[in-house]
UniProtKB/TrEMBL annotation:
Active site (record annotation): 376
Assigned GO CC terms: extracellular space
SMART domains associated with the record: CUB, Zn_pept
Name by which UniProt lists this protein: Carboxypeptidase A2
Function of the molecule: Involved in the digestion of the blood meal.
InterPro entries named in the record: CARBOXYPEPT_ZN_1, CARBOXYPEPT_ZN_2, CUB_dom, M14A-like_propep, M14A_act_pep, Peptidase_M14, Sperma_CUB_dom_sf
Coiled coil: none
Length: 651
């Protein structure tokens, strides 16, 4: 009798796959829930930062989030949706069915060799990589995973000294199988159609790391299809692994990370605690020490149809050359869409997805690599049917070739020998590689006058030099980097000494002149830009307002303002004097911290731009006193909910 029961138990265990430790998802559901208010979003964030539920997508701004729940968790989750009035739909009724269908399809499609009709084992990928025999490809090992698996890089080069270099990597997240399959597909594509890429390899070297998180990947094949992390042991915890894409040292332990080893977004015991992330960091640094210069780093993930660009660690933060990254992202997703109609969105990672600290694309950008991005590839779950490996790879490769082409076109430029433009007016806009501001040369400037020149250098590095100056002490010329997308001032330097070089990074500056009481005459200032193209920043709304008194309404012509606005209005009356800036109308999406849409007022005092207030909603702020009469009004909106804007007066 006992023996019979024992036998039955064995049969049950075998049938359910438990002898291999395979995790089952019977009765697990995936819900897509919609946050339409900040309160709902906050409730989701609390759940997300806990470790109970597997969030397939992260709660970003307002919008949809996919959450997997075990059968016993479902009542609690639905109760929470109900308490917060959140709408939801069931995206997958039974995750086991989804996973099982993939297992069957993958087994059926498998031909016993790598051919991109099925998802491969790590061993099969290694066999493919280590048997590459080509005069344009070299395979090397850049490190080992926690469990001792080799991490490979394939270098494509036609030989000679290092060329401008590009790094692609994939499968840092275990369950995102399509990422690794795309990585190996790209390698195979360059190998088998080498003739098509001869011209490219005259210009660049391409490195591909197709399988970073090999331990996690294998575990997701043999044990838990939804495993995301590495497989390192966490001291004092029975939970294993950390999220390698929270483990890089830039903005480590920041937004959307967890200190809980059981969380899927656990950031690890320290930056680069994982051998997998160490391997990438070491590879890049050692290559650079050997003369390699990386111009692009693209990391492949799934799913969401997104092209994410830095900074990803928080919303509203942008590198100075953001326009160049955005234009590349938009060109890349256009090329991708042209292949078979798949629609992607390109944008700043935290603005369109969610803020996340310690990610590889931010790390790479902060390290100094010009173009970096995270691709969240196609699909509505981590389970992408194997017959979509090749269609996905074809479209992603079209996008990656846009990156390659952009890198080829990105050439460091030297400074012009002499300024290509000259401006003599008080204020004005100058978009050029170099220019001279020759203002009131040898002529008087009245006390109290202020001028603002808007300077858009073509290239990333700007050198400014005062050639001559008749300004007295107390007067000044200031270079202020102004982030066109964040709407905030950055680096701020006084250009005081004739003949001295002042250097800046950025593509948008306010050059501000203030004049003290005394015998001032004019000056000649020259600036030159060099390096890589940063792209011309643009504003959704812009005005330079110089009448002594006036009123300005936005949007011009009425109606609602648009999504994703970045507007700048400069109030700088030609007649000097103290003034008051007052808002007479305000209708801007409201939340407690004005984190979605916001108006900011900055004034010039103590020789710098200072934010006086940031506000939203419909309550008019108290009028602002402007000691120098000079103010900046900036406006930002997010990707949902608009209003009718605002009107302000100055007098
Ligand atoms: Zn991922």
């Amino acid at each position: 009798m006992k023996a019979a029961i024992f036998l039955v138990l064995i049969l049950v265990a075998v049938a359910s796959g438990r002898e291999t430790g395979l995790r089952h998802f019977k009765g697990y559901k995936v819900f897509t829930t919609l946050a339409t208010t900040k309160e709902q979003l906050d409730a989701l964030r609390v759940l997300y930062l806990g470790s109970d539920y597997d969030f397939w997508t992260s709660p970003n701004g307002l919008g949809a989030t996919d959450i997997m729940a075990a059968p016993e968790q479902i009542p609690e989750l639905l109760k929470m949706f109900g308490e917060h009035g959140m709408e939801y739909t069931v995206k997958f009724e039974d995750v086991e069915t989804l996973v099982e269908a993939e297992r069957v399809a993958n087994a059926k499609a498998s031909t016993g060799r790598i051919d991109w009709t099925s998802y491969q084992t790590y061993d099969s990928i290694v066999e493919f990589l280590t048997t590459i025999n080509s005069n344009i490809a070299a395979v090397s090992v850049i490190g080992q995973t926690t469990e001792g698996r080799d991490i490979h890089v394939v270098k494509f080069s036609n030989g000679g000294p290092p060329k401008k270099s590009i790094l692609f990597d994939s499968n840092i997240h275990a369950r995102e199988w399509i990422a690794g399959a795309t990585g190996t597909w790209v390698i195979n594509e360059i190998l088998t159609n080498a003739d098509s890429y001869t011209a490219i390899l005259q210009e660049v070297d391409i490195y591909v790391i197709p399988m970073i998180n090999a331990d996690g990947y294998e575990y997701s094949r043999t044990n838990d299809r939804m495993w995301r992390k590495t497989r390192s042991v966490n001291a004092g915890s029975s939970c294993m692994g950390c999220d390698p894409n929270r483990n890089f040292d830039f903005q480590w332990a920041g937004e959307s990370t967890s200190s809980d080893p059981c969380s899927d977004i656990y950031y690890g015991s320290a930056p680069f605690s994982e051998p997998e992330t160490q391997a990438i960091d070491r590879f890049v640094r050692e290559a650079e020490a050997a003369g390699v210069q990386f111009y692009a780093y693209i990391t492949m993930h799934s799913y969401a149809n997104l092209w994410l660009i830095p900074w990803g660690y928080t919303a509203g933060a942008y590198p100075p050359d953001f326009p160049a990254l955005l234009s590349l992202g938009q060109a890349a997703v256009a090329a991708l869409q042209a292949v078979s109609g798949t629609v992607y969105q390109a944008g700043q990672g935290a603005d369109i997805l969610y803020g996340a600290g310690g990610t590889s694309y931010d790390w790479a950008k902060n390290h100094g690599i010009k173009y970096t991005a995270t691709i969240e590839m196609r699909g509505n779950s981590f389970v992408l049917p194997p017959e979509q490996i090749i269609p996905n790879a074809l479209e992603v490769w079209a996008a990656l070739q846009v990156v390659i082409q952009r890198v080829i076109e990105t050439v460091p430029v030297e400074e012009d020998p002499t300024p290509v433009e000259t401006v003599t007016s008080c204020g004005g806009e100058i978009e050029a590689s170099s220019a001279a501001i020759n203002f009131q040369l040898d002529a008087d400037i009245p006390a109290g006058q202020s001028c603002i020149w808007i300077v858009k250098p073509t290239f990333d590095n700007t050198r400014a030099r005062l050639v001559s100056s008749g300004l007295i002490g107390g007067s000044g010329i200031y270079f202020t980097e102004f982030n066109a997308y964040a709407g905030t001032p950055g680096q701020h330097v006084q250009i005081a000494n004739v003949g001295e070089d002042y250097t800046f990074n950025g593509n948008f500056f306010l050059v501000t002149l203030t004049v003290a009481v005394g015998a001032n005459t004019g000056f000649s200032l020259e600036w030159y830009s060099s390096g890589l193209a940063g792209g011309a920043p643009s504003f959704s709304g812009f005005a330079a307002l110089s009448t002594p008194t006036g009123s300005y309404s936005y949007p011009v012509g009425g109606g609602q303002y648009a999504n994703s606005e970045n507007a700048l209005f400069i109030v700088n009356p030609e007649v000097a004097g103290t003034r008051t800036l007052a808002f007479t109308r305000l209708d801007v999406e409201n939340d407690a911290t004005c984190s979605y849409d916001a108006v900011s007022v900055l004034t010039w005092q103590n020789n710098e731009y200072t934010q006086l207030a940031k506000f939203c909603g419909t309550s008019l702020p108290t009028p602002f006193n402007l000691p120098t009469g000079l103010a900046l009004v900036t406006f930002r909106s997010d990707s949902s909910v608009t209003g009718t804007g605002f009107t302000f007066t100055w007098a």
